[in-house]
Amino acid sequence: MALTKAEIAEALFDQLGLNKREARELVDLFFEELRAALSTGEQVKLSGFGNFDLRDKNQRPGRNPKTGKEIPISARRVVTFRPGQKLKARVEAYAGTKQ
Amino acid sequence: MTKSELIELIAAKQQHLPTKDVELAVKQVLEIMGDALSQGSRIEIRGFGSFSLHFRPPRQGRNPKTGETVALSGKYVPHFKPGKDLRERVNAGIDNPIRD
Fold first, then answer.
1. A9: nearest CA in chain B?
2. How do residues A17-73 score in pLDDT, each as one tens digit?
3. CB-CB: which of A37, A47, A76 is closest to B94?
4. What angle do CA A10, A86, B80 make, to 5 degrees?
5. Which positions in chain A touch B48 (Cβ < 8 Å)?
6. Alpha-helical runs (H) found in chain B
7. S-S: A37 plus which of A32, A42, A57, A74, CB 3.0-4.6 Å?
8. How far is residue A89's CA from residue B64's CA, in Å, rounded to a whole number?
9. Looking at residue B78, what DSSP letter applies?
10. How much is the CA Rg of chain B, to the nearest whole Å?
């Protein structure tokens, strides 16, 4: 089972006592502000969790896997996530069965 | 943007909660996400992306100081895959300089 926005809001309600409307609004704003920052070229550093970095990629040759025809992959900007020390350490210990 | 800047931005955009409560809530959201991943659960945020764990198999490592080989056990690392909306919006902003 995957964690969703609805479940994060539910957990805020359970754990902090925010009312459900406030919790939903906060979770929506949280992800919207991250998206807004990244789309204006601003990288995001959330200490303890990780960094969302931006990288500009040059155009490179690609291939349509179906037809084998060569088509260039255009220059683009992408988001990469670099987990922080604390998150890495917490996750490393996970030894359960595959997700 | 840092965590404290994110907190300020969110506090300014809603009327119900004082900054102090927004701060607690933002930190708690990150805790909840960390809890999920450390229990092996995926996170799926529509329009933003998904977080999952990738397995790194056991390998022989080397102590860089002594040159000794050491056996490293397998481990999981967090992985983020941006969603379609985030990918498109970030790429549309390619003309903005990248800033911290």
1. B29
2. 999 999 999 999 999 999 999 999 999 999 999 999 999 999 999 999 999 999 999
3. A76
4. 65
5. 31, 34-35
6. 3-13, 19-38, 84-92
7. A42
8. 21
9. E
10. 19
* Closest residue in chain A to residue B91, using alpha carbons only: A77
Contact by Cβ (8 Å): A91, B78? yes
A17 touches chain B (CB under 8 A): no
Question: In one letter, which amino acid is A68?
Answer: G
CB pair distance less than 8 Å for A5 and B9: no
- Residue A2 burial by Cβ neighbours in a 10 Å radius (0-12, 13-18, 19+): middle
Q: What is the DSSP letter of B96?
A: S
Closest chain A residue to B41, measured at CA: A2
Q: What is the dihedral of CA B100, B10, A84, A93, to 10 degrees?
A: -170
pTM of the full structure = 0.91
Both ends of chain B: CA-CA distance in Å?
6
Q: Please count the residue pairs, one from chain A and one from chain B, whose beta carbons lie less than 8 angstroms apart.
A: 181
Which position has the token pair 């260039």? A72
